[in-house]
Amino acid sequence: MKGIVLTAMDDEIYEVLSDNEIFADLFNGALFGGNQIIRPDMLEQENEKKVMRVGKEGGRRVILRRIRDVQKLSGLRESCLAVVLAAEGQRNVHYAMPVRCMLYDAMDYTRQVERMVKKRREEGKLEKGAEYLSGMKREDRLLPVITIVFYYGEEQSWNGPLCLHDMLDIPPELEPWAACIQDYRVNLVCSGTVESSHFRTGLREVFELLPLLKDKEGMKEFLETRKREFIHLDAKKGWLVSKFLNVPALKELKENEKGEVNMCTAIEEMLEERETQGIERGIERGIEQGEIRVNQLIEVLLRQSELDEAYKQIKRAVTDRDYQKKLFDKYGI
């Protein structure tokens, strides 16, 4: 079955995830079973750029610089920040994702500690001993950091590691004590790890449609069963779906568009366009491949025959397709 090529631009996806309503829905639906733990009106944009000093190398200070995709601060109670939320968008599998997430989270916690230490030192109320050495009081606490990896690739089959242990080559002698080796788990979010009904925004339709990107007939059957709903889909949901499925007919929709869109017609047109493009690409590749084979045949004939005889065979091979095929078979081209 000929699949659909996913061509959504990553920067468009990051723009989508920056929307507070969608960002909150992503976490509520993926991690909290649809419970409205994160409220859009309590989200604050956080600086995605991370900088951390990690010591010196060769007499020079070493500084790590990383940029998260989307990060926000969230309160769970009025006027009280309670959690740091971060989303890493992935169109392709990343085989070092546990280490990447661990580093990002460590940089966030380090930044919190540095801010707290600076505040405490400025207050000048640290007691001698552990408090002065740490730059913190015993009762000081950090905000928890929750990072999710949102995988929206066309395969929707993550074959990479899901925790740090998946990346480690643990010697057999240490396997009984593997629990002593610190692990770090990835919060993977894709169509196979979520329940689409837990989402309230167009993410529900996104997670329903993503697994069908490479199944044209399956896509048609799904749309037929939900025809009434998708013919009158909310315009903002249509805008969101268009970002992930790259639906040309919906590209002109705005983020806050009002009204409804006919998603069935839009996707059917997309399928037809993609199929036509696929056929055209196949023809182009076929022509290119045919030219390569003919060139290879000419090289073989020039090497193995007298010049006059080679020219005769080449001339006949160009005009006689059956003879050309016979030569291809003969020389294994």
Structural account:
There is one protein chain. This protein has helices at 10-17, 20-31, 97-123, 130-134, 164-167, 203-209, 216-225, 227-231, 235-245, 263-304, 307-319, 321-331; strands at 43-45, 49-57, 60-67, 70-77, 80-90, 145-151, 187-189, 233-234, 260-261. The chain is α/β, with parallel strands linked by helices and 333 residues long. Strands 1-4-5-6-7 form a 5-stranded mixed β-sheet, with helices on both faces. The longest helix is centred in the last third of the chain and has 42 residues, at 263-304. It is extended, with a radius of gyration of 29 Å. Mean pLDDT is 81; it is low at 1-8.
Distance from first to last alpha carbon: 28 Å
> What is the number of helices?
12
Which residues sit in consecutive blocks of at least 5 with pLDDT less than 50? Answer: 1-8
Integer average pLDDT = 81
User: Looking across the biggest beta sheet, what order are the strands in?
Assistant: 1-4-5-6-7
What's the main sheet like?
5 strands, mixed
Radius of gyration (CA) equals: 29 Å
Beta strand count:
9
The topology string of helices and strands comes to HHEEEEEHHEHEHHHEHEHHH
- Gross morphology: extended
**How much strand content do the residues show?**
15-25%
Name the helicity range. 40-55%
Structural class by helix and strand composition = alpha/beta
